């Protein structure tokens, strides 16, 4: 049995030991993260009348609203490469993947406060369990994407093979932001409230339910918005429609990987101090 020795010295003084410990705990957390994932999924849908239908309702309602506004000429969205209802539904589902990944770290750590204060276990298990729930919810919603393809007779192109890469990139970006915000969010509940407000605003400035504007402030916002190229390319790969955002997609994905590792390190270093405050 491995022996763990705790010292008051900062772990950053020996990065090699820190990173090795992070890797070992990541491997050891597999079994526990699976158990936490099963528990959370069962608890989420056990006491609901509609069950898994709740996974479909938000994107369906959002799609219906935007299609109604567009059909009634309240909004002039413009021409889209695929039928507008399919365009909105696919964009909304992709956005939901990003938002779920962003919220999961803070929500799971906050929900596990009492367990963290009483039991010593690999803290990475909480993050992995949260990411597993994001993947599970997306797999359920794939039914909607398949239905859209069948209903609108959208042809399947070879670019669909790149679609999983886009989903992974959305999860990386969302998880990266969520992990970085988690230490602050555990201390101040304002962060969780701010995430709700900011993601709602973020939705409207991201080309989810409308194409990227060709000029003006809207084009500038879409250009500097890190989620935009990922959603644009992922939807393009899925539907086989042309898009020109490969380069920013690569930059943001690679940047998300490095920043996620940095956020994980911050999470690892900060959590013992946060647990001490939670236990006080």
What are the main properties of this structure?
mainly alpha; globular; 280 residues; 0% strand
Kindly describe this structure:
With 280 residues, this protein is mainly alpha-helical. It has one domain. The chain has helices at residues 15-28, 30-46, 53-71, 84-111, 113-118, 124-151, 163-187, 190-204, 216-224, 227-239, 246-279. The chain is globular and about 55 Å long. The chain starts with 14 loop residues before the first helix and ends with a helix.
Précis, in short:
By secondary structure, the protein is mostly helical. It contains eleven helices and no strands.
Number of domains: 1
Number of helices: 11
Low-confidence stretches: none
Order of helices and strands: HHHHHHHHHHH
Shape: globular
Give the class from helix and strand content and strand pairing: mainly alpha
Tally of strands = 0
| Helical percentage | over 70%
| Overall pLDDT level | 86
Present the secondary structure layout.
Blueprint: H1 15-28, H2 30-46, H3 53-71, H4 84-111, H5 113-118, H6 124-151, H7 163-187, H8 190-204, H9 216-224, H10 227-239, H11 246-279
Helix pairs in contact: 2-6, 3-4, 4-6, 4-7, 4-8, 4-10, 7-10, 7-11
């Amino acid at each position: 049995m491995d022996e763990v020795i705790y010292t008051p010295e900062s772990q950053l003084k020996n990065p090699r030991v820190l990173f090795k410990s992070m890797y070992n705990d990541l491997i050891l957390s597999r079994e526990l993260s699976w158990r936490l994932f099963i528990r959370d999924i069962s608890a989420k849908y056990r006491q609901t009348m509609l069950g898994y239908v709740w996974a479909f309702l938000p994107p369906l309602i959002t799609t219906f609203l935007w299609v109604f506004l567009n059909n009634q000429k309240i909004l002039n969205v413009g021409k889209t490469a695929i039928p507008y209802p399919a365009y909105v539904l696919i964009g909304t589902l992709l956005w939901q993947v990003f938002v779920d990944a962003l919220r999961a770290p803070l929500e799971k750590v906050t929900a596990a406060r009492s367990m963290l204060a009483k039991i010593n276990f690999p803290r990475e298990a909480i993050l992995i369990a949260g990411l597993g729930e994001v993947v599970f919810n997306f797999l359920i919603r794939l039914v909607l994407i398949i239905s859209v393809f069948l209903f609108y007779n959208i042809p399947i192109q070879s670019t669909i093979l790149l679609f999983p890469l886009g989903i992974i990139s959305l999860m990386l970006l969302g998880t990266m932001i969520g992990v970085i915000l988690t230490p602050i969010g555990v201390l101040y509940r304002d962060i969780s409230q701010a995430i709700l407000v900011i993601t709602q605003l973020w939705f409207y400035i991201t080309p989810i339910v409308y194409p990227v504007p060709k000029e003006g402030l809207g084009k500038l916002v879409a250009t500097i918005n890190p989620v935009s190229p990922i959603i644009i390319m992922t939807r393009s790969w899925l539907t086989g429609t042309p898009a020109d955002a490969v380069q920013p997609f690569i930059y943001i994905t690679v940047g998300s990987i490095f920043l996620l590792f940095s956020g994980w390190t911050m999470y690892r270093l900060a959590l013992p101090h946060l647990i001490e405050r939670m236990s006080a």
